[in-house]
Design a protein that fits this description.
133 residues; alpha/beta; Glutaredoxin
């Protein structure tokens, strides 16, 4: 059995779509990991993502149990787990999608690019403006 990941947040909300929820509660860059406890392929992906959490403080990491949150899978057109989505614009725009085990370099490249873009855009804008969405 695959244990639930510890560090990132588990999705816990009711009454609205996840995209709407993310627009109010997340940061500018979001990584969502759709996993299943019975899929052994989820384990190496989980370990890879857990190793990235501390290195990307600007990114909000969320774990979604695909067995329990089928409506979220449908909302993001995720046919199965494991799947990783990297989103920008407070969870509104998909930047990358990975299924099964992917390379750490591929995930790092996408996260670093988005974080760099955000930092660059924030130089000319006050934080209150950037996060008032």
């Amino acid at each position: 059995m695959l244990d639930a990941p510890v560090e990132p947040s588990f999705i816990q909300f009711t009454g609205e779509g996840m995209k709407q929820w993310l627009s109010r509660t997340s940061g500018p860059v979001v990584l969502i990991f759709f996993w299943c406890h019975w899929r052994e392929e989820s384990r190496p992906m989980r370990l890879l993502l857990e190793s990235l959490v501390k290195g990307y403080r600007e990114v909000k990491f969320y774990w979604v149990n695909a067995d329990e949150k089928g409506s979220i899978c449908k909302e993001f057109s995720v046919p199965g787990a494991p799947t990783v989505l990297i989103l920008s614009n407070f969870g509104q725009e998909e930047e990358a999608r990975f299924t099964l085990l992917t390379s750490e370099a591929g995930i790092r490249h996408n996260l670093s690019r988005l974080v760099k873009d955000i930092k660059k855009s924030q130089k000319d804008v006050s934080p209150a403006t950037v996060f008032a969405q």
